[in-house]
Amino acid sequence: MATVQQPLFLFPPASSPDQVEWTGDSIGRSNIITRTRSRTKVHDKVIDRTPGRREHLLNAAIAHVVRSAGRESVYLHDVIIHGIRVRAITNSQHLIEFWRQNWYGPEEWVQTTGSAAPEEPRVVVYALGGVPGEPEAAYYSRATNTVIFFNTSYYGQLKSWVLGAVGRVLAADFGIHSIHGACVERSGEGILYIAPTGTGKSTSSYGLMTYPDTRFHSDDWVYIRYTRAARSGQRLVPIEIETNKSEIIRGYRCNRWLDEHPSERGIARCLDLANNEVTIDLGDFDRGRPVEAYAYTSEKIFYLRTNLVENFPDAADAILRADLENVPTATPGFIQMNARVVDAIVDELRASEHPGVRQRLGTLPTDQLRQLVASLFAFDNSRAMLDIGQVLAPPRVFLNPMEPVRLTTVFLLKRTPSDPVVLKVLPLEHFMDRLLIGQTPDGKREIAYNAYRAVDDEAEAQMVRTLEAQATQNGTSLYGLLERAPDVPDSLQEEFELFRVMHQSTFCYDLNTTLQRDPLINSKKEAVRLTLQLILRGAENRSRDLCLTLDDYRAQIRG
To answer: How far apart are CA 201 and CA 219, in angstroms?
Structure first.
């Protein structure tokens, strides 16, 4: 007789088949279950290509809002995302609540940053449930910077598509790089992790916070401004160049143009580090000083996975006081299967140095506490809207989205057990090749390790497949072929031109998070500790030849 596999976690069912969201089990301040818990089956980022399609979808969204007037609530709320005003229109109370928590409203932006808020939105998102005749779907128009969601209220996809749309505006108009990554400041310098899911980004970033003189910067999304020095010493981001020949260069194209035209005359419109606009003569750039990268955080309240508790148990207290999305009930079978992890988290909570954690969670009955912490990591895509200032002391967190940190070190994370190299500096072509064929541990490819990008995914993937075949046949660099290839999608040119400047302005590393293969290591915890020492070694290194393997890395780290 076949064995029936028991579920590891359970979600409460919807009361009707057409519900897109409903209340889950009582955990956290709220716990909303969404019918869609990942990317919608229907998703189209190139609706501009089909004549009339964009207009049809937009008319369907507007018509539903009009038809619903007086019968259901429709919410409109503007936010500022790295200086870009974005408008959300939705009939989902869950989405609008997470949206308001996640980002700075215009007044909050002014109060927090001291910068003016734009008057008009550059990106608009419609997120509507209960739309008859439409599938559960997500659409994007680059021509109008519009995102349209029908019959889904999963916040994760809404957030990612909006960030992708904002990223295209920032790159094209301002030369600002949007990165799916995490950032920590150490001793006044920024350390950036770019990583596919499952390679240790959260473990590495939160782990570094156990060291002194560190500040938490970003959990999921970082904005990078590439600056040039003026002769006055001011750091400026060139956003538009007008030459004496009336040629106009905008956005991400400015840095390469300046590199290739050192004697050209004209003027440059720029942004300073505080987002003020400055116009200077091209001759006022100090060409002898290097380009520097500055990182800015994005979110007000972090939307992050609740399985953070596996690596950062103290976060459980703040998570259980936050608004949650898609947290199930862990079954007895799951708790038994993961008893060692569950009990380790419980022990750390009871021994926490944070008085509030001990008071609120450390005194709970053991069975209740085990159930709570197990439910937080039973489902990989359970989320919390977490105020990181409740987990770490506010002085250790970047609270102003316009406070820059100079970015000096970038780690591309991977988990490749067959590779004995654990840390090495990447030359430009190797750095770019890794980004072009980024791969998750389960084999899924992500260009630039970023599924958020608002691009034609298939056109980009086809271009990379073509170039990869040529590179294999000719024994050449993938990036070298990209630089010379005709008909490269604009989105790829944009992304990799910005990564070129990143490599120019920072130390970029390959970090292979596989130290558990070291026969001298007895636990995952020890492997994590030594990986953090590798990260510190990289952050302090100034040699372009550094390369450490499983055989020799211990001699190069502190302990």
So the answer is: 9
Q: pLDDT tens across 66-105, in order?
A: 988 778 899 999 999 999 999 999 999 999 999 999 999 9
Q: Do residues 202 and 391 lie in contact, with contact meaning Cβ atoms separated by under 8 Å?
A: no
Q: Which amino acid is at 115?
A: S
Q: What is the mean pLDDT of residues 252-270?
A: 96
Residue listed under structure tokens 């500022």: 80
Whole-angstrom distance, CA of residue 290 vs CA of residue 541: 18
Read off the pLDDT of each residue in 286-314 and give the average, rounded to a whole number. 93
Residues facing residue 23 across a β-bridge:
32
Q: In the CATH scheme, what is the code of domain 42-174?
A: 3.40.449.10
Residue 169 to residue 173: CA distance in whole angstroms: 6
Residue ranges of E strands in 177-276: 177-180, 182-186, 189-194, 214-218, 221-229, 235-243, 248-250, 266-272
Helix or strand or coil: residue 174?
helix
The DSSP code for 359 is I
Domain boundaries, the chain: 1-16+302-386, 42-174, 234-285, 405-556
d(CA 154, CA 34): 6
Residue 458: exposure state from Cβ atoms within 10 A (0-12, 13-18, ≥19): exposed
The tens digit of pLDDT for each residue in 387-400 reads 988 888 899 999 99
Query: What would the two tokens of residue 366 be?
Result: 């053991």
CB 91 within 8 A of CB 130: yes
Band of residue 114 on the pLDDT scale cut at 50, 70, 90:
very high
Which of 182, 176, 154, 18 lies closest to 95 in space, CA to CA?
154
**Whole-prediction pTM value?**
0.94
* Nearest to 452, CA basis, from 165, 234, 235: 165
C-beta of residue 389 within 8 angstroms of C-beta of residue 397: yes
What is the predicted pLDDT for the residue at 106? 98
Pick from 157, 194, 136: which is nearest to 17 by CA? Answer: 136
Q: How far is CA 200 from CA 197, 204, 207, 411, 541, in A?
A: 8, 6, 10, 11, 21
Using CA atoms, how far residue 276 sits from 26, 115, 237, 289, 472, in Å, is: 46, 8, 10, 22, 47
Question: pLDDT tens digit string along 489-539?
Answer: 999 999 999 999 999 999 999 999 999 899 999 888 899 899 999 999 999
Burial of 312 (0-12, 13-18, 19+ CB in 10 A): buried
Token pair of 47 as six digits: 């609706």
Spatial CA neighbour of 454 closest among 88, 154, 157, 163: 163
